Amino acid sequence: MRIGFDAKRAFHNVTGLGNYSRTLINSLIQFYPNENYILFNPKPSAFYNPSSKNCKEIRPTTWFSTLFSSLWRSRLMLNELNREVDLFHGLSNELPFGIHTSTIKKVVTIHDLIFEYYPEQYKKNDILIYRKKFKYACQSADKIIAISESTKKDLIQLYHIDENKITVCFQSCDERFYTCATEKHKRMISEKYELQSPYILSVGSIIERKNLLNVCKAFNEIQKELDLLLVIVGKGSGAYKELVMNYLNQNNLNHKVKFLEDQYSSQDIYKDLPTIYQNAKAFVYPSIKEGFGIPILEAMASGTPVVTSNISSLIEAGGYAAITINPNNESEIKDALSILCTNEMVREEYISKGFERAKLFNNENTCKRVMNVYKELIQAK
Fold first, then answer.
1. N or C end: fewer C-beta atoms under 10 angstroms in the chain?
2. For residue 138, how many other CB atoms are within 10 A of its CB?
3. Helical H runs in the chain?
4. Pair (182, 164) in one structural domain
5. Does position 53 have pLDDT exceeding 90, yes or no?
6. Any idea of the CA torsion for 6, 10, 11, 14, to the nearest 10 degrees?
């Protein structure tokens, strides 16, 4: 089977959709080595290089498609698709326009429809573009992969997609997160990022939906009793980050909160992230809405106890292995983090539960469900 991928995110995005794309592609290559994988990449990248004899990268070849690589990805690569693949998988919510006329089998992964629920957090033009791309992809695809039951429900309710067209395939995380670092390496990473003090970890973009302000409010109460840092991995700018920074300034918390990506390169942090998780006392992720919530899985696989929201797909990701809280209640966030930072018995209990739950989402299990979607479509020819 010749399986093609829209691999832009795999080659160019350090987090989020990039992690999903790389993890899935790498897992398929590892567990299904007899298939052929064709990665469509609009421009060169030194970040990702899947070296495998059954994996081929295709980039624009003409001067026009090279100059207008976004246009090549969204429309012009159809000729290559029809020639090179039996099935094409859009890994990040979209398929090339015009693909509905192709006879190749078509799959799209829809991660979330968050922009439909929180339009005030997006630019108006972006919403229109997303809606057009997502609806076209859903209409054109032979099968839709939703990364959670929550996303499947949203697709049915908002876009009126036939539920039989949707298969839920949970995400996995990179195998790096399942590997325990040596004590020597843990010390080295702590020194590299100046994280020798015990810390609570937050991972995610600094945007309103991720709810960092409530994390900071909860941390403000905790640090009055405990000598801790709050370590934040994630980028952000604009009004919401300014709101967070103003709160930290007003409460004299700047020396207790570290924004790693303001000081260090994103690629270094990405490389060291498993150990940054492992060194943390607790991980906090009180997002208002997610497609899945892969940082929860990264934390559990890394042996870090999790505090997350009791809504949306976060419950699917964390399940019994996380302490769930009302994300709008800073006191609940504070109490959950406090018990993990002061009661070692409870902390060890959630670490053990996290390891157990993370096994359910290992790479072999998650990519098997995706491969089953491919085989079902190809055999239906």
1. C
2. 21
3. 8-12, 17-31, 63-67, 69-71, 78-84, 114-117, 124-140, 149-159, 183-192, 212-222, 239-250, 266-278, 294-302, 314-318, 330-342, 344-360, 363-379
4. no
5. no
6. 140
* Residues 317, 319, 322: CA angle, nearest 5 degrees: 95
Domain range for 163 is 2-172+363-379
Tokens of 188: 């080295």
State the pairing for strand pair 199-203/166-168: unpaired
Torsion of CA 339, 345, 347, 348, to 10 degrees: 180
In total, how many domains does the chain have? 2
Which pair of structure tokens corresponds to residue 92? Answer: 């990040």
* Cα–Cα distances in angstroms (integers) from residue 301 to residues 133, 164, 203, in the given order: 33, 32, 15
- DSSP-derived pairing of the beta strands 143-146 and 322-325: unpaired
pLDDT digits (tens, 9 = 90+) for 95-116: 999 999 999 999 999 999 999 9
> Sorting pLDDT into bands at 50, 70 and 90, what band is 267?
confident
Tokens 């993990």 belong to: 340
Is there a contact between 16 and 36 (Cβ–Cβ < 8 Å)? no
Same domain, 131 and 238: no
Taking only the tens place, the pLDDT of each residue in 272-331 is: 999 999 999 999 999 999 999 999 999 999 999 999 999 889 999 999 999 999 999 999
